[in-house]
TrEMBL record:
Membrane topology: Multi-pass membrane protein
Subcellular location: Mitochondrion membrane
Gene that encodes it: SFXN1
Record protein name field: Sidoreflexin
Reactions this protein catalyses: L-cysteine(in) = L-cysteine(out); L-alanine(in) = L-alanine(out); L-serine(in) = L-serine(out)
Taxonomic source organism: Panthera leo
């Protein structure tokens, strides 16, 4: 290798390690969030299923690096790539508003493995009432954990509110699934395979607003572009929750809409007639393949730091903002996931 090349590499590594600048904004994602591609890159990193395999020690280490860096302490030898890696490990396991460690299965990195297993089973065992009841209940229990773990803001839900949301969403999903199952008994088997998707879509419309009902009552924190808190807005919560419902339904769509066609064809083949038990693992694998792409791409549909015009806020909050920040046109808020 020529000496000029190694010299350049040395210079590069020196600026990357010993003199890592203290002004990298790790509060924001690494990629530009105003573009879909930037948001997709961000969420491919956030939803990376390998993050669930990290030990507590690795998580605490990442937390320490991030906290130290925010305080202006740069450990010697830390590279920019290591800093970003620590930030993304930290973000995958700790809540952005409260800073507390999130329940393992509620983290975004657990979405693909958990959803592929549950969805695959929902779509394999959809013919009998007990199976529908069991898998829709499992799915809604999982959704309840995810929605609670990824709620926006720092407003805690009471046990009562949690219970109501959970029971209502499960009832809604099971009722939709059983009702549609009864209707589709007389149509082609292919249409019957789409019943679980309709049930999941209906349940999302019930589950997410109910799990986040406190935000609809009290509002979610809104800030200016520099993160200064201006107050709480229920109108911002409505926009945030609508965007999350849309992206969650679309997230489930490929995994629940593509495999039925493939499975319908496969089940007519000799292989699955000979090994019927292979049907669930194949279905889970197909759903998993779809979800690896659908999860980050649908999370990326709307910016995580969502915004709305000051004129769309509640009248009293508008008046309060006009007094303090007369020039302000837009407010920002974390939409949740």
């Amino acid at each position: 290798m020529c000496s000029c090349h190694t010299g350049r590499e040395l210079a590069q590594s020196r600026t990357m390690s010993g003199e890592l600048p203290a002004n990298i904004n790790i509060k924001e994602p690494r990629w530009d969030q105003s573009t879909f591609v930037g948001r997709a890159n961000h969420f491919f990193t956030v939803t990376d299923p390998r993050n669930i395999l990290l030990s507590n020690e690795q998580l605490e280490n990442a937390r320490r690096v991030v906290h130290d860096y925010r305080q202006g302490i740069v450990p010697p030898g830390l590279t920019e790539n290591e800093l970003w890696r620590a930030k993304y490990i930290y973000d995958s396991a700790f809540h952005p508003d409260t800073g507390e460690k999130m329940i393992l299965i509620g983290r975004m990195s657990a979405q693909v493995p958990m959803n592929m297993t549950i969805t695959g089973c929902m779509m394999t065992f959809y013919r009998t009432t007990p199976a529908v009841l069991f898998w829709q209940w499992i799915n809604q229990s999982f959704n309840a954990v995810v929605n609670y773990t990824n709620r926006s803001g720092d407003a805690p839900l009471t046990v009562n509110e949690l219970g109501t949301a959970y029971v209502s969403a499960t009832t809604g999903a099971v009722a939709t699934a059983l009702g549609l199952n009864a209707l589709t008994k007389h149509v082609s088997p292919l249409i019957g395979r789409f019943v679980p998707f309709a049930a999941v879509a209906a349940a999302n419309c019930i589950n997410i607003p109910l799990m986040r009902q406190r935000e609809l009552k009290v509002g979610i924190p809104v800030t200016d572009e520099n993160g200064n808190r201006l107050g709480e807005s229920a109108n911002a919560a409505k926009q945030a929750i609508t965007q999350v419902v849309v992206s969650r339904i679309l997230m489930a769509a490929p995994g629940m809409a593509i495999p039925p066609f493939i499975m319908n064809t496969l089940e007519k083949k000799a292989f699955l007639k000979r090994f019927p038990w292979m049907s669930a693992p194949i279905q889970v694998g197909l759903v998993g393949f779809c979800l690896v792409f659908a999860t980050p791409l649908c999370c990326a549909l709307f910016p995580q730091k969502s915004s709305m015009s000051v004129t769309s806020l509640e009248a009293e909050l508008q008046a309060k903002i006009r007094e303090t920040y007369p020039e302000l046109r837009r407010v920002y808020f974390n939409k949740g996931l």
